[in-house]
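Annex B. Sample input.
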Amino acid sequence: MKTPKRIIDLLTERSNYLTLAENNLDKALFKYQEKLLNDYFKIIIPMLEVDASGNLVDSLKNSRLLQTTEKLYQGFLKDNKYKFGEDISGVFDKTASLNDKYFLSTISQTSQTFFGPLAAITKAKINARMGLSGGSIVGGSFLDRLFANDDLIMSLKKFMASAVTGRMKQKDFLSGVNKLITGAGEGEGAYQRQFKRYAHDLFMQYDSAYNSSIATALKMKYFIYQGGLIVDSRDFCVSNNGKVFSKEDTAEWFNWTPAQGEYPEGYKIKQKDINAVPSYLSFAGYTPLIDRGGYNCRHILGWISDELAQKLTKQTQKTESS
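Annex B, continued. Sample output.
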């Protein structure tokens, strides 16, 4: 028995939306960092002390600009955090809605009668865990720390201090600041790069946390590991794509090695040591139902009934034995 088309379609819809949300967030982050650069050039640059040769002066005034830069950055965060919270909240709401649509299509009518309150409680719980309340980011939360991105301000202040001490030419200093914040056409800026590292996982982990909580409440035991394959898909995902697993099965993922995998004909294992647990499964805090195939994994969990799981598993076993 093949996985029902309605299930594949619903999972594909959810997966496509998560990819779209990641791309949209990336565009928003680009706008945020452009604004930060404009604010910096508007406020900090005119205050720089430069000598007749166009070099930064190693002066007390220029040194004090480090504090001004810190204040500028903190103001930037404060002014934009609410909008960022709205962006994230909108994605979380839509993700929860697509999960609800999926579950309502796959669970029994008996379960559907109390699904609404269950979904509301689950959504509130996961949002609180992430650090959202009423569409706003909660101070000190995971999202708050992610948005603050201390790495950028530390890098910027370090660069400024070095430029002042080394009496860097102003034009080189402006170019360096531009490159640091935006990448200046040579790659992603520090702000965008920080978020891109976590943005996809942020949405995918929300999706996994939400649907796993719903599945636990509904006492569902099985899921399809769904997400398709791309050129750089990891060995783990290639081996498990489209397969049915139980919650208990995921305990084995901690010790999974490429040597244990079952791959499409002609597939070449990417990892050099096929008997070693991949780093994307062996990091501290790895949680199978949330992290799946590790950082930037594009697979999602499609929870299914015991009956469908048994039919799909029997069909797989029959195909493998024939």
